[in-house]
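If I may wish for something, please walk me through the protein I am sending here so I can picture the backbone:
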Amino acid sequence: MSAFHPQPRPHSIHWRTPITMVVLLGVLVGGAWWGWNSLTETSAEPNCVDTLMANDRLTPKQVSVNVYNGGAKAGTAAAVAGILRKRGFHVAKVANEPNGDKITGVALRGTEANGPEMQLVAGQVKGKLKATADKRPDHTVDLVLGQGYPGLRDQGIPSIALPKNTTLCLPSIRPSQPVPSGQNPN
């Protein structure tokens, strides 16, 4: 007796498996095409725009600031952001420090440690600041408030003088628009 029994031959061809394979191959090719187009044809707006500075001055309305609480009393970042808005700065974000770092005093992070946007924000704060260059492409400034934050100056510097005919890469600041009634802003 043999353990092998001859298997009967199917009388009809089952088309379900080849059709499923063709459909899956089509999904794979379509996904690869979409992924390639997403990588090569970006619709992202520029991070910053090269701008010839009028009157050779940088003013607060041209600077975008993120205000982070890195160990200061709760609510400090929101209060500082409100004052910076009144002084003309564009405040993009107000939150706890994104990395969860706790600092002492005040820290500034931006494209260049001595960049004019960093100097303008530093001119708003009392005391010494630790400035760090992180080569960010959008030229925003992070103001991180830590334990022992000394406060803002009563009157911050209103502008920074620049060399004649200076061109700076300024952040793309879109004016806020009201959200139509009944629509989710997110």
Notes: The chain has a mean pLDDT of 84.
